[in-house]
Amino acid sequence: MIDPIKLAERWRSILCRDGKFGIDRDPSKSLGYPAENLVRTYFRQWRPIKDKRNLAFDEKGTRLQNFDVYRDSWFDYPTIIQGKMGGPSWEDYNCLTAIHVPACTFNCWHCYVTDDSKNPQKMLENGLIEYVTPSNVVDAFLDQKEMNEHKGDDKIPTNVIRVTGGEPFLEPDLILGILKDLEHRGKSKEIFVWTETNLSPFLREKESGQPLLKRWVDLEELAGFRNLAVHPCLHGICPGNYYSITNCDPYYFDGILDGLKTLIDYQFDIYTTFGSNVSPPQMIPYIFRQLREIRENLPQRFALIDYELHYPPTRERIAKSLKPEQIFNKVVVMSEWNELLKRNYGEGYPSKPRHLVDLRK
């Protein structure tokens, strides 16, 4: 059973050295991504919107009639960023250029990356960690942006740096450094930073009562950047489900929810999720109540993810040890969520673009 606080401290000692931060040197080796998705040694590109119906809403916030919530994945990153940055089109933000933090405090069975790629000790031993400064990352990104945007008819607008993992908030000072470097170069109104978290670095230390990551970063300073959004993902919607997915001590589940509250209290702009096909439907009312206690309208900020279980690392874990009852019917889960939204807010799922849900209330 994993103690995520102890593991975070251990991984942090490997990731951060001499003012530099460890990232995955070659995702093609550690993650198994096809070469066409890799654009530099340590970058991977992802275009979330491949079919416009995945938007769910148009640029004016009107629900698209051909969007089927039970069929179509709701990928709203580009419209969220457009809403924050004021660009002319969501297509300007539909290319996320990612660096990977090669460490995680969870061992989720449905994770799409290999176990070794989340273990920085093994990654270091295999020569797969690159130690970089924030300026190194921004330099490389701007080089890639220039390459992408000078391709003639194949031009790809490239305006989003994604810091993913693993668990990116094991290196929150890297995220802050990237944002400050962009600001120094006068790029804050042009380049957006999107990142994720499993919320474990926000767990509170027993001695200080403060979130662990406050040792490493000024949360108020980080939250102040307008060109930043955070995607917190709940890997489990109750203590038992959290344990079965992550192999972490269920004692920490309440602390994970408290981490979500910390993000909101510091006024980070967050876009939350949980898995529709890995969550027990009978516990949906429980998590709905818990979220409303944090903020009355927080459930309206959630997107439900249908995890893809065909990735080789996931298939291997399923074949080895997964119990069948850990996979659930997403339609039942989403239907329950939809009914709770209607009952409490008068609107179903998805009811409105998530960036229009005001968590400051």
Walk me through the structure.
With 361 residues, the chain is of the alpha/beta class. The chain has one domain (4-356): TIM Barrel, CATH 3.20.20. 34% of the residues lie in helices and 12% in strands. It is built from twelve helices and ten strands. The chain has helices spanning 4-15, 27-30, 77-85, 120-125, 134-148, 172-184, 219-223, 239-246, 253-265, 284-294, 312-321, 330-345; strands at 16-17, 20-24, 44-46, 96-100, 129-132, 160-164, 192-197, 228-234, 273-275, 303-305. The strands form two sheets. Strands 3-4-6-7-8-9-10 form a seven-stranded mixed beta sheet, covered by helices on one side. A three-stranded antiparallel beta sheet has the order 1-2-5. A hairpin with a 2-residue loop joins strand 1 (16-17) and strand 2 (20-24). Helix 5 packs across helix 6. The longest helix is centred in the last third of the chain and has 16 residues, at 330-345. The protein starts with a helix and ends in a 16-residue tail after the last helix.
Describe the structure in brief:
By secondary structure, the protein is an alpha/beta fold.
Structural class: alpha/beta
Q: Estimate nothing, just give the exact number of structural domains.
A: 1
Shape: globular
Order of helices and strands: HEEHEHEHEHEHEHEHHEHEHH
The CATH first-level class comes to Alpha Beta
Overall radius of gyration: 19 Å
Low-confidence stretches: none
| Major sheet size, sense and barrel closure | 7 strands, mixed
> Helix count?
12
Question: What do we call the CATH homologous superfamily?
Answer: Aldolase class I
As a percent range, the share of strand residues is 5-15%
- In helices, the fraction of residues equals 25-40%
The overall strand count is 10
In the CATH hierarchy, the third-tier topology is known as: TIM Barrel
Compute the separation of the termini in Å: 38 Å
Give the overall pLDDT as a whole number: 91
Strand order of the largest sheet: 3-4-6-7-8-9-10
CATH architecture type: Alpha-Beta Barrel
